[in-house]
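Closing statement on the FE2/S2 (inorganic) cluster sub-project.
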Amino acid sequence: MNKPIDIPNPVPFQITDPAQIPTPRYYDEDFYRLECEKLWPHAWQMACRLEQIPNVGDWVQYTNVGKSVIVVRTNDGVKAFHNACRHRGVPVTEGEHGNCRSEGFICPFHGWRWNIDGENTFVYGRHLFDEKQLEPQELALRPCRVETWGGCAFINFDDNAPSFRETIGPVADNLEARGMSNMRSEWWFATVLPANWKIAMEAFQEGYHVMRTHPQLQRAQPALYNTRYGHDTGGIGSPINPNLTVRQNIEQAFKGMELLSEGMAGMVHAKEVEIARQLVGMELPDNPEQAMMTWYGAVAAQITEQLQARGEPVPNLLEVMQNNPVQAVEFLFPHYFLLPTFTSMSSYRIRPLGPEECLFEIWSLTHYPEGEEPEPPMEPTFLPYDSKDFPPIPQQDYANIPTQQKGCHAEGFDFMRLSPQIEGLLSNYQRIIDGYLGDVPQDKLAAAIQKLGGNFDGPILDLGF
Ligand code: FES
Protein backbone atom coordinates (compact mmCIF):
# COMPACT_ATOMS: atom_id res chain seq x y z
CA MET A 1 0.00 0.00 0.00
CA ASN A 2 1.90 3.00 -1.17
CA LYS A 3 -0.66 5.31 -2.70
CA PRO A 4 -1.19 8.82 -1.31
CA ILE A 5 -4.64 9.54 0.07
CA ASP A 6 -7.15 11.42 -2.05
CA ILE A 7 -8.56 14.36 -0.09
CA PRO A 8 -10.83 17.19 -1.30
CA ASN A 9 -8.70 20.05 0.02
CA PRO A 10 -4.93 20.38 0.33
CA VAL A 11 -3.33 20.14 3.77
CA PRO A 12 -0.04 21.78 4.70
CA PHE A 13 2.76 19.23 5.10
CA GLN A 14 0.39 16.63 3.72
CA ILE A 15 1.57 13.01 3.66
CA THR A 16 2.30 12.10 0.06
CA ASP A 17 4.34 8.95 0.72
CA PRO A 18 2.55 6.88 3.40
CA ALA A 19 5.90 5.75 4.83
CA GLN A 20 7.15 9.32 5.33
CA ILE A 21 5.68 11.72 7.92
CA PRO A 22 6.81 15.35 7.37
CA THR A 23 8.31 16.66 10.62
CA PRO A 24 6.69 20.15 10.61
CA ARG A 25 3.42 18.36 11.44
CA TYR A 26 4.88 18.03 14.95
CA TYR A 27 5.65 21.71 15.57
CA ASP A 28 4.21 23.99 12.88
CA GLU A 29 1.79 26.49 14.43
CA ASP A 30 -0.49 26.67 11.39
CA PHE A 31 -0.75 22.90 11.25
CA TYR A 32 -1.65 22.88 14.93
CA ARG A 33 -4.29 25.57 14.40
CA LEU A 34 -5.78 23.50 11.60
CA GLU A 35 -6.01 20.48 13.93
CA CYS A 36 -7.81 22.67 16.49
CA GLU A 37 -10.24 23.84 13.82
CA LYS A 38 -10.85 20.72 11.76
CA LEU A 39 -9.91 17.67 13.82
CA TRP A 40 -10.75 18.14 17.49
CA PRO A 41 -14.24 19.71 17.09
CA HIS A 42 -15.31 16.77 14.90
CA ALA A 43 -13.76 13.83 16.76
CA TRP A 44 -15.03 11.81 19.74
CA GLN A 45 -13.04 12.81 22.80
CA MET A 46 -12.82 10.91 26.08
CA ALA A 47 -14.20 13.49 28.52
CA CYS A 48 -14.27 11.69 31.88
CA ARG A 49 -14.60 8.39 33.67
CA LEU A 50 -18.19 7.70 34.75
CA GLU A 51 -17.15 6.73 38.28
CA GLN A 52 -16.34 10.44 38.73
CA ILE A 53 -20.04 11.26 38.36
CA PRO A 54 -21.92 8.41 40.11
CA ASN A 55 -24.76 10.53 41.59
CA VAL A 56 -27.39 12.82 40.07
CA GLY A 57 -25.94 16.32 39.92
CA ASP A 58 -22.29 15.20 39.84
CA TRP A 59 -20.38 17.03 37.13
CA VAL A 60 -16.86 17.32 35.77
CA GLN A 61 -15.37 19.90 33.46
CA TYR A 62 -13.52 18.64 30.38
CA THR A 63 -11.28 21.07 28.52
CA ASN A 64 -9.33 20.71 25.31
CA VAL A 65 -7.89 23.15 22.74
CA GLY A 66 -9.52 26.12 24.42
CA LYS A 67 -13.03 24.64 24.74
CA SER A 68 -14.75 23.64 27.97
CA VAL A 69 -17.59 21.17 28.36
CA ILE A 70 -19.57 20.17 31.46
CA VAL A 71 -20.42 16.46 31.73
CA VAL A 72 -23.20 15.94 34.29
CA ARG A 73 -25.19 12.99 35.66
CA THR A 74 -28.92 13.78 35.44
CA ASN A 75 -32.08 11.82 36.20
CA ASP A 76 -32.13 10.94 32.49
CA GLY A 77 -28.55 9.76 32.20
CA VAL A 78 -25.34 11.55 31.36
CA LYS A 79 -25.63 14.92 29.56
CA ALA A 80 -23.05 17.42 28.38
CA PHE A 81 -23.20 21.20 27.89
CA HIS A 82 -20.87 23.76 26.42
CA ASN A 83 -19.51 25.60 29.41
CA ALA A 84 -20.37 29.21 28.65
CA CYS A 85 -22.87 31.48 30.34
CA ARG A 86 -25.58 32.59 27.92
CA HIS A 87 -25.22 36.17 29.21
CA ARG A 88 -21.60 37.05 28.48
CA GLY A 89 -19.80 33.76 28.13
CA VAL A 90 -18.16 33.12 31.50
CA PRO A 91 -17.86 29.38 32.29
CA VAL A 92 -20.67 28.46 34.65
CA THR A 93 -18.62 26.02 36.69
CA GLU A 94 -15.94 26.89 39.19
CA GLY A 95 -13.31 24.21 39.71
CA GLU A 96 -12.94 20.91 37.90
CA HIS A 97 -15.80 18.93 39.46
CA GLY A 98 -18.69 19.21 41.89
CA ASN A 99 -22.37 18.49 42.48
CA CYS A 100 -25.06 20.88 41.26
CA ARG A 101 -28.16 18.99 42.36
CA SER A 102 -29.38 21.50 44.93
CA GLU A 103 -28.16 24.80 43.49
CA GLY A 104 -27.70 24.06 39.80
CA PHE A 105 -24.98 25.88 37.89
CA ILE A 106 -24.44 29.52 38.96
CA CYS A 107 -22.47 31.88 36.77
CA PRO A 108 -19.81 33.50 38.95
CA PHE A 109 -20.04 36.85 37.08
CA HIS A 110 -23.67 38.07 37.50
CA GLY A 111 -25.30 35.04 39.07
CA TRP A 112 -27.56 33.64 36.34
CA ARG A 113 -28.53 30.01 37.06
CA TRP A 114 -29.30 26.72 35.31
CA ASN A 115 -30.61 23.38 36.51
CA ILE A 116 -28.82 20.08 35.81
CA ASP A 117 -30.74 19.72 32.54
CA GLY A 118 -29.30 23.01 31.33
CA GLU A 119 -32.54 25.02 31.64
CA ASN A 120 -32.15 28.59 32.81
CA THR A 121 -33.81 29.09 36.20
CA PHE A 122 -32.78 32.61 37.17
CA VAL A 123 -31.73 35.90 35.60
CA TYR A 124 -30.71 38.57 38.08
CA GLY A 125 -32.45 41.89 37.29
CA ARG A 126 -34.58 40.34 34.58
CA HIS A 127 -36.46 43.63 34.05
CA LEU A 128 -33.22 45.20 32.80
CA PHE A 129 -33.21 43.07 29.63
CA ASP A 130 -35.39 42.98 26.55
CA GLU A 131 -37.63 39.92 26.80
CA LYS A 132 -36.59 38.83 23.32
CA GLN A 133 -33.07 38.30 24.72
CA LEU A 134 -34.44 35.95 27.35
CA GLU A 135 -36.28 33.27 25.35
CA PRO A 136 -35.97 30.05 27.41
CA GLN A 137 -34.50 28.05 24.54
CA GLU A 138 -31.97 30.82 23.97
CA LEU A 139 -30.95 30.90 27.60
CA ALA A 140 -30.58 27.13 27.97
CA LEU A 141 -26.99 25.91 28.11
CA ARG A 142 -25.99 24.64 24.66
CA PRO A 143 -26.03 20.84 24.67
CA CYS A 144 -23.02 18.91 23.47
CA ARG A 145 -23.22 15.38 22.06
CA VAL A 146 -22.21 12.75 24.57
CA GLU A 147 -22.14 8.93 24.52
CA THR A 148 -21.09 6.55 27.26
CA TRP A 149 -19.02 3.47 26.66
CA GLY A 150 -16.43 1.43 28.53
CA GLY A 151 -16.90 3.28 31.81
CA CYS A 152 -16.28 6.67 30.14
CA ALA A 153 -18.20 9.60 28.65
CA PHE A 154 -17.16 10.64 25.13
CA ILE A 155 -18.14 14.02 23.70
CA ASN A 156 -18.25 15.42 20.16
CA PHE A 157 -18.96 19.02 19.13
CA ASP A 158 -20.14 17.96 15.68
CA ASP A 159 -23.88 17.17 15.47
CA ASN A 160 -23.35 15.56 12.08
CA ALA A 161 -20.51 13.21 13.01
CA PRO A 162 -21.32 9.47 12.99
CA SER A 163 -22.06 8.13 16.48
CA PHE A 164 -19.22 7.04 18.75
CA ARG A 165 -20.12 3.38 18.17
CA GLU A 166 -20.29 3.81 14.40
CA THR A 167 -16.94 5.53 14.49
CA ILE A 168 -15.06 3.06 16.68
CA GLY A 169 -16.62 -0.11 15.30
CA PRO A 170 -16.19 -3.71 16.50
CA VAL A 171 -13.27 -2.98 18.85
CA ALA A 172 -15.85 -1.39 21.18
CA ASP A 173 -17.61 -4.72 21.68
CA ASN A 174 -14.36 -6.67 21.95
CA LEU A 175 -13.09 -4.40 24.71
CA GLU A 176 -16.46 -4.22 26.45
CA ALA A 177 -16.48 -8.04 26.62
CA ARG A 178 -13.62 -7.65 29.13
CA GLY A 179 -16.01 -5.98 31.56
CA MET A 180 -14.73 -2.46 30.96
CA SER A 181 -17.89 -0.80 32.25
CA ASN A 182 -17.32 -2.42 35.65
CA MET A 183 -13.72 -1.32 35.99
CA ARG A 184 -12.58 1.30 38.48
CA SER A 185 -9.47 3.45 38.70
CA GLU A 186 -6.79 2.25 41.08
CA TRP A 187 -4.79 5.36 40.35
CA TRP A 188 -4.64 8.25 37.89
CA PHE A 189 -1.42 10.07 37.03
CA ALA A 190 -0.87 13.08 34.80
CA THR A 191 2.13 14.89 33.44
CA VAL A 192 2.91 17.65 30.96
CA LEU A 193 5.25 16.51 28.21
CA PRO A 194 7.21 19.02 26.11
CA ALA A 195 6.16 17.28 22.91
CA ASN A 196 3.50 17.40 20.23
CA TRP A 197 0.50 15.22 21.13
CA LYS A 198 1.11 12.96 18.10
CA ILE A 199 4.72 12.27 19.13
CA ALA A 200 3.34 11.11 22.49
CA MET A 201 0.66 8.90 20.87
CA GLU A 202 3.11 7.38 18.42
CA ALA A 203 5.43 6.23 21.21
CA PHE A 204 2.79 3.57 21.89
CA GLN A 205 1.79 2.67 18.33
CA GLU A 206 4.45 0.02 17.77
CA GLY A 207 6.29 -2.58 19.83
CA TYR A 208 9.49 -2.10 17.85
CA HIS A 209 10.83 0.25 20.53
CA VAL A 210 10.68 -2.39 23.27
CA MET A 211 14.15 -3.83 22.66
CA ARG A 212 15.96 -0.52 23.24
CA THR A 213 13.52 1.44 25.39
CA HIS A 214 12.29 -1.38 27.65
CA PRO A 215 15.23 -3.83 27.53
CA GLN A 216 14.06 -5.58 30.69
CA LEU A 217 11.05 -6.91 28.74
CA GLN A 218 13.20 -8.32 25.97
CA ARG A 219 15.66 -9.81 28.45
CA ALA A 220 12.78 -11.60 30.16
CA GLN A 221 11.32 -13.02 26.94
CA PRO A 222 14.01 -12.76 24.23
CA ALA A 223 12.37 -15.35 22.00
CA LEU A 224 9.08 -13.47 21.96
CA TYR A 225 10.58 -10.13 20.94
CA ASN A 226 13.28 -11.51 18.63
CA THR A 227 10.68 -13.49 16.70
CA ARG A 228 8.51 -10.48 16.22
CA TYR A 229 11.12 -7.91 15.29
CA GLY A 230 14.53 -9.49 14.95
CA HIS A 231 14.58 -11.84 11.96
CA ASP A 232 17.32 -10.03 10.11
CA THR A 233 19.34 -9.52 13.28
CA GLY A 234 19.36 -13.09 14.46
CA GLY A 235 15.79 -13.69 15.55
CA ILE A 236 15.14 -17.33 16.32
CA GLY A 237 11.79 -17.63 14.58
CA SER A 238 9.68 -19.16 17.33
CA PRO A 239 8.00 -17.79 20.44
CA ILE A 240 9.45 -20.76 22.29
CA ASN A 241 13.17 -20.75 23.00
CA PRO A 242 14.38 -24.21 21.84
CA ASN A 243 17.51 -23.93 23.96
CA LEU A 244 15.45 -23.93 27.11
CA THR A 245 13.45 -26.66 28.76
CA VAL A 246 9.67 -26.44 28.86
CA ARG A 247 9.92 -25.42 32.51
CA GLN A 248 12.44 -22.68 31.75
CA ASN A 249 10.21 -21.35 28.96
CA ILE A 250 7.30 -21.14 31.38
CA GLU A 251 9.47 -19.39 33.94
CA GLN A 252 10.41 -16.84 31.28
CA ALA A 253 6.77 -16.28 30.38
CA PHE A 254 5.96 -15.76 34.05
CA LYS A 255 8.88 -13.36 34.44
CA GLY A 256 7.47 -11.40 31.49
CA MET A 257 4.14 -11.09 33.32
CA GLU A 258 5.89 -9.94 36.49
CA LEU A 259 7.82 -7.25 34.64
CA LEU A 260 4.73 -5.94 32.88
CA SER A 261 2.97 -5.76 36.24
CA GLU A 262 5.85 -3.94 37.95
CA GLY A 263 6.28 -1.72 34.90
CA MET A 264 2.72 -0.77 34.13
CA ALA A 265 0.39 -1.88 36.96
CA GLY A 266 -3.06 -2.55 35.42
CA MET A 267 -1.60 -3.84 32.18
CA VAL A 268 -1.02 -7.06 34.13
CA HIS A 269 -2.34 -6.69 37.65
CA ALA A 270 -0.34 -7.91 40.66
CA LYS A 271 -3.26 -10.13 41.69
CA GLU A 272 -3.11 -11.82 38.27
CA VAL A 273 0.64 -12.37 38.68
CA GLU A 274 0.03 -14.01 42.04
CA ILE A 275 -2.47 -16.41 40.48
CA ALA A 276 -0.05 -17.20 37.62
CA ARG A 277 2.71 -17.85 40.18
CA GLN A 278 0.64 -20.75 41.57
CA LEU A 279 0.81 -22.40 38.13
CA VAL A 280 4.53 -22.09 37.30
CA GLY A 281 5.16 -25.66 38.52
CA MET A 282 2.05 -27.26 37.01
CA GLU A 283 2.18 -30.49 35.00
CA LEU A 284 2.65 -29.69 31.31
CA PRO A 285 2.98 -31.55 27.98
CA ASP A 286 6.51 -32.21 26.69
CA ASN A 287 5.89 -30.37 23.43
CA PRO A 288 7.00 -26.75 24.10
CA GLU A 289 4.26 -25.07 22.01
CA GLN A 290 1.55 -27.22 23.59
CA ALA A 291 3.05 -26.58 27.02
CA MET A 292 2.96 -22.81 26.53
CA MET A 293 -0.63 -22.87 25.28
CA THR A 294 -1.67 -25.14 28.13
CA TRP A 295 0.00 -22.87 30.69
CA TYR A 296 -1.50 -19.62 29.39
CA GLY A 297 -4.91 -21.34 29.18
CA ALA A 298 -4.61 -22.48 32.78
CA VAL A 299 -3.56 -18.98 33.88
CA ALA A 300 -6.56 -17.43 32.12
CA ALA A 301 -8.94 -20.03 33.62
CA GLN A 302 -7.56 -19.60 37.13
CA ILE A 303 -7.62 -15.79 36.96
CA THR A 304 -11.28 -16.02 35.96
CA GLU A 305 -12.18 -18.59 38.62
CA GLN A 306 -10.31 -17.04 41.51
CA LEU A 307 -11.30 -13.43 40.83
CA GLN A 308 -14.95 -14.39 40.28
CA ALA A 309 -14.82 -16.36 43.56
CA ARG A 310 -13.73 -13.13 45.27
CA GLY A 311 -16.82 -11.44 43.84
CA GLU A 312 -15.07 -9.46 41.11
CA PRO A 313 -17.24 -8.91 38.00
CA VAL A 314 -14.60 -10.23 35.59
CA PRO A 315 -15.52 -12.03 32.36
CA ASN A 316 -14.62 -15.60 31.46
CA LEU A 317 -11.17 -14.89 30.03
CA LEU A 318 -10.94 -18.03 27.91
CA GLU A 319 -14.23 -17.17 26.25
CA VAL A 320 -13.39 -13.54 25.57
CA MET A 321 -9.90 -14.37 24.33
CA GLN A 322 -11.48 -16.69 21.77
CA ASN A 323 -14.56 -14.67 20.83
CA ASN A 324 -13.41 -11.08 21.36
CA PRO A 325 -9.69 -10.93 20.59
CA VAL A 326 -7.91 -7.64 21.26
CA GLN A 327 -4.44 -6.29 20.58
CA ALA A 328 -1.78 -5.47 23.17
CA VAL A 329 -2.75 -1.83 22.62
CA GLU A 330 -6.12 -0.68 21.28
CA PHE A 331 -6.48 2.89 19.98
CA LEU A 332 -9.72 4.86 19.95
CA PHE A 333 -8.96 7.72 17.57
CA PRO A 334 -7.80 10.37 18.24
CA HIS A 335 -6.47 10.49 21.80
CA TYR A 336 -7.47 7.54 23.98
CA PHE A 337 -6.04 4.03 24.14
CA LEU A 338 -6.16 0.93 26.28
CA LEU A 339 -3.69 -1.83 27.08
CA PRO A 340 -5.69 -4.97 27.88
CA THR A 341 -3.88 -8.17 28.80
CA PHE A 342 -5.95 -10.25 31.23
CA THR A 343 -8.80 -8.73 33.26
CA SER A 344 -7.23 -5.37 34.19
CA MET A 345 -6.04 -2.59 31.89
CA SER A 346 -3.98 0.52 31.62
CA SER A 347 -5.63 3.41 29.82
CA TYR A 348 -4.10 6.59 28.40
CA ARG A 349 -5.47 9.96 27.26
CA ILE A 350 -3.44 12.67 25.56
CA ARG A 351 -4.49 16.27 24.91
CA PRO A 352 -2.53 19.00 23.13
CA LEU A 353 -1.59 22.09 25.12
CA GLY A 354 0.02 23.74 22.10
CA PRO A 355 2.05 22.62 19.08
CA GLU A 356 4.87 21.34 21.26
CA GLU A 357 3.30 20.46 24.58
CA CYS A 358 0.72 17.93 25.69
CA LEU A 359 -1.10 16.69 28.77
CA PHE A 360 -0.57 12.97 29.25
CA GLU A 361 -2.74 10.93 31.64
CA ILE A 362 -2.59 7.28 32.68
CA TRP A 363 -5.15 5.27 34.61
CA SER A 364 -4.67 1.83 36.09
CA LEU A 365 -8.06 0.09 35.87
CA THR A 366 -9.23 -3.06 37.57
CA HIS A 367 -12.30 -4.79 38.98
CA TYR A 368 -13.44 -4.86 42.59
CA PRO A 369 -16.10 -6.98 44.31
CA GLU A 370 -19.45 -5.19 44.24
CA GLY A 371 -19.72 -2.85 47.21
CA GLU A 372 -15.95 -2.80 47.76
CA GLU A 373 -15.08 -0.27 45.04
CA PRO A 374 -12.72 2.41 46.35
CA GLU A 375 -13.54 6.10 46.20
CA PRO A 376 -12.61 7.17 42.67
CA PRO A 377 -9.74 9.59 42.20
CA MET A 378 -11.41 12.87 41.18
CA GLU A 379 -8.24 14.49 39.93
CA PRO A 380 -4.99 13.01 38.67
CA THR A 381 -1.79 13.02 40.67
CA PHE A 382 0.42 15.44 38.74
CA LEU A 383 4.10 14.55 38.48
CA PRO A 384 6.98 16.00 36.46
CA TYR A 385 7.51 13.83 33.39
CA ASP A 386 10.92 12.70 34.65
CA SER A 387 9.56 11.70 38.08
CA LYS A 388 10.78 8.40 39.48
CA ASP A 389 7.32 7.96 40.99
CA PHE A 390 5.92 6.89 37.61
CA PRO A 391 5.92 3.12 37.02
CA PRO A 392 9.11 2.01 35.21
CA ILE A 393 7.60 1.55 31.73
CA PRO A 394 6.15 5.09 31.40
CA GLN A 395 9.39 6.43 32.90
CA GLN A 396 11.25 4.82 30.02
CA ASP A 397 8.78 6.09 27.41
CA TYR A 398 8.83 9.63 28.84
CA ALA A 399 12.62 9.69 28.49
CA ASN A 400 12.30 9.40 24.68
CA ILE A 401 9.33 11.62 23.91
CA PRO A 402 10.75 15.10 24.75
CA THR A 403 14.08 14.39 23.05
CA GLN A 404 12.31 13.15 19.92
CA GLN A 405 10.43 16.46 19.83
CA LYS A 406 13.73 18.33 19.86
CA GLY A 407 15.07 16.11 17.09
CA CYS A 408 12.17 17.07 14.83
CA HIS A 409 13.71 20.55 14.55
CA ALA A 410 17.09 19.31 13.33
CA GLU A 411 18.34 20.68 10.02
CA GLY A 412 17.78 18.19 7.23
CA PHE A 413 15.43 15.95 9.22
CA ASP A 414 12.46 16.45 6.93
CA PHE A 415 10.37 13.40 7.64
CA MET A 416 9.99 10.33 9.86
CA ARG A 417 10.73 7.18 7.85
CA LEU A 418 8.42 4.31 8.79
CA SER A 419 8.59 0.57 8.39
CA PRO A 420 5.59 -0.18 6.15
CA GLN A 421 5.22 -3.55 7.88
CA ILE A 422 5.24 -2.75 11.60
CA GLU A 423 4.87 1.03 11.89
CA GLY A 424 1.82 1.22 9.67
CA LEU A 425 -0.42 2.38 12.51
CA LEU A 426 1.52 5.66 12.74
CA SER A 427 0.96 6.28 9.03
CA ASN A 428 -2.69 5.26 9.21
CA TYR A 429 -3.28 7.61 12.14
CA GLN A 430 -1.54 10.54 10.49
CA ARG A 431 -3.37 10.05 7.18
CA ILE A 432 -6.73 9.97 8.99
CA ILE A 433 -5.71 13.32 10.52
CA ASP A 434 -5.06 14.56 6.97
CA GLY A 435 -8.54 13.26 6.11
CA TYR A 436 -10.05 15.48 8.82
CA LEU A 437 -7.95 18.49 7.86
CA GLY A 438 -8.67 17.98 4.16
CA ASP A 439 -12.46 17.66 4.53
CA VAL A 440 -12.93 13.96 3.73
CA PRO A 441 -16.61 13.05 4.41
CA GLN A 442 -17.25 11.84 7.94
CA ASP A 443 -18.59 8.42 6.95
CA LYS A 444 -15.32 7.71 5.16
CA LEU A 445 -13.33 8.91 8.16
CA ALA A 446 -15.33 6.62 10.47
CA ALA A 447 -14.68 3.65 8.16
CA ALA A 448 -10.96 4.48 8.21
CA ILE A 449 -10.93 4.79 12.02
CA GLN A 450 -12.43 1.31 12.28
CA LYS A 451 -9.40 -0.01 10.42
CA LEU A 452 -7.17 1.11 13.28
CA GLY A 453 -8.61 -1.65 15.49
CA GLY A 454 -6.23 -4.58 15.34
CA ASN A 455 -3.53 -2.62 13.50
CA PHE A 456 -1.04 -2.40 16.38
CA ASP A 457 2.36 -3.35 14.90
CA GLY A 458 0.51 -3.70 11.60
CA PRO A 459 1.05 -2.54 8.03
CA ILE A 460 0.23 0.67 6.21
CA LEU A 461 -3.39 0.27 5.08
CA ASP A 462 -5.52 1.60 2.26
CA LEU A 463 -7.85 3.92 4.20
CA GLY A 464 -10.54 4.07 1.54
CA PHE A 465 -9.97 7.69 0.53
FE1 FES B 1 -22.80 34.97 33.35
FE2 FES B 1 -23.22 37.51 33.34
S1 FES B 1 -21.67 36.44 32.35
S2 FES B 1 -24.31 36.00 34.42
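Residues 85, 87-88, 90, 107, 109-112 surround FE2/S2 (inorganic) cluster (CB under 6 Å). With this model delivered, the sub-project is considered complete and its resources will be redirected to Aim 3.
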